[in-house]
Amino acid sequence: MLAPLLAMTFAIYTFGGVEFVAVTSGESRSPGDVAKAVRITFGMLSLLYLGSIAVLVGVMPWNNAALSESPFVTVFRTVKIPGAGPLMNFVVLTAALSGANAALYVSSRMLFSMARTGWAPARLGHLNRKGSPDAAVLVSSFGIAVAVLLVTFVPGRAFEYILRGAFFGMMLSWIASLAAHISFRSRLTPAQADLLLFRSPLKRFGSVIGLTVVCLVILKGWYDSRINLMSALAYLIILNIAYFFFKAGQKSRPLVDPSRAGSST
Fold first, then answer.
1. 173 falls in which pLDDT band (50, 70, 90)?
2. Nearest to residue 16, comparing CAs of 171, 132, 155?
């Protein structure tokens, strides 16, 4: 009965990326674009995740799944699609590169925006001659270097270390987005809520439920793994120190006009 809970960290991690809609909403051309992005995101998740699971359980009995190969490879082999292994490797690598590129974009743009508003080192808010925040991109690539070192020196547990180490960072962005939505909806009058282009049918209560579940998942991850717990403590300590450091600097440092920051915080 508890087996699904043991895999919770790995299962939730596969949904990493949905927070990009919230993070990049400040650069959207209009509220309508944000609503469209949300619909596309949930539509793609339903199609790719639920659709693929339906195909898997419809073609391959659950007790035939093996640890030696991907269940997708097994399904392709069952329906006699040649080159199933290389085909799935290509799909997985393409998806991984796409996810890495999106994460690098979001991280660098967020650092750039924070630097322009005084919440990160000013150097990260500089643009090169081509208009790219090269310093922010370089700092955002730090995780790639760490991953390479882990794969080199602890290949057997590199995947687990990377996944569990990054887990709380992803969850923290979910917590911030959900909490922001709860605060936003609580301040709206009924008339203002009716003017929203995209409204949750559960109003703010959907975010309350989501925030509660996310917090429970985090606590479960801390209970299961010291890596989850230690990385979370490191995140919280570093972020709080940085917050108080830059907050003190806000008093003596004029802020850049947010319209020039390239992103809204």
1. confident
2. 171
Cα dihedral sign, 70-75-80-86: negative
Distance CA 25, CA 31 (A): 8
pTM over 0.85: no
Whether residue 37 contacts residue 28, with contact meaning beta carbons closer than 8 Å, is answered with yes
End-to-end CA distance of the chain: 42
* CA 96/CA 101 separation, integer angstroms: 9
Q: How far apart are CA 138 and CA 116, in angstroms?
A: 17
For residue 159, with 0-12 CB atoms within 10 Å meaning exposed, 13-18 middle and 19 or more buried, which class applies? middle
DSSP labels, the chain: --HHHHTHHHHHHTTTTTTHHHHTGGG-SSHHHHHHHHHHHHHHHIIIIIHHHHHHHHHS-GGG--SSS-HHHHHHHHTT-TTHHHHHHHHHHHHHHHHHHHHHHHHHHHHHHHHHTTSS-GGGG---TTS--HHHHHHHTHHHHHHHHHHHH-TTTHHHHHHHHHHHHHHHHHHHHHHHHHHHHHH--HHHHHT-SS--TTTHHHHHHHHHHHHHHHHHHHHH-HHHHHHHHHHHHHHHHHHHHHHHHHTTSPPPPGGGSSS--
Q: By the 8 A CB rule, do 229 and 167 touch?
A: no
Question: 202-234 pLDDT, tens per residue?
Answer: 888 999 999 999 999 899 889 888 999 999 999
CB 201 within 8 A of CB 194: no
